[in-house]
Amino acid sequence: MKSILMSAILGVLAITTAFASDGLVKDIVVYKNPECGCCTKWVKYLQDNNYNVTIEHTRDVLAVKKRLGVPEKLAACHTAVIDGYVVEGHITHRDIKRLLLFRPDIKGIAVPGMPVGTPGMESGNTVQPYNVMSFDEQGAVEVFVEH
């Protein structure tokens, strides 16, 4: 009986998630250095997860981060914008989806640095634990999700 109930609950959750995600924005602009291999891998990862990626090559990614309000301590190698939110670094498509579903009152989310095992930073089965951080207009930083 428990397994039938659990299957029913999981089925409803899957259907609800599928319907909820149908309306999410999939257009994302990625600002990256044209020579950065891990950024290129992250773009491919997004494309493989059905995002419509526009790439803006720039040799001054730091100026983009500053213009978009990314706190210096949260900086990574590339910066993206989706539906008004800033997405900094090697963020999973699930975390972007969570951001767009819940629409918190923040400026964006970031994975500082380049943790091994994040999208674009794969290294076999090695995955470093890391946090996705949120940041707001005033520079307040909090944990958005733990990995």
Architecture overview:
The chain is an alpha/beta fold and 147 residues long. It has one domain: Glutaredoxin (3-Layer(aba) Sandwich), CATH 3.40.30. 35% of the residues lie in helices and 23% in strands. The protein has four helices and seven strands, in the order αβαβαββαβββ. The chain has a seven-stranded mixed β-sheet with strand order 2-1-3-4-5-6-7, sandwiched between helices. β3 (79-82) and β4 form a beta hairpin. The protein is globular, with a radius of gyration of 16 Å. The relative contact order is 0.15.
Number of strands: 7
Class, according to the CATH hierarchy? Alpha Beta
Quickly count the domains. Answer: 1
CATH homologous superfamily descriptor: Glutaredoxin
Any low-confidence stretches, pLDDT <50, length ≥5? 5-16
> What integer is the average pLDDT?
88
Shape: globular
Strand order of the largest sheet: 2-1-3-4-5-6-7
Topology:
Layout: H1 2-22, E1 27-32, H2 37-48, E2 52-57, H3 61-68, E3 79-82, E4 85-88, H4 93-102, E5 108-110, E6 131-135, E7 141-146
Parallel strand pairs: 1-2, 4-5
Antiparallel strand pairs: 1-3, 3-4, 5-6, 6-7
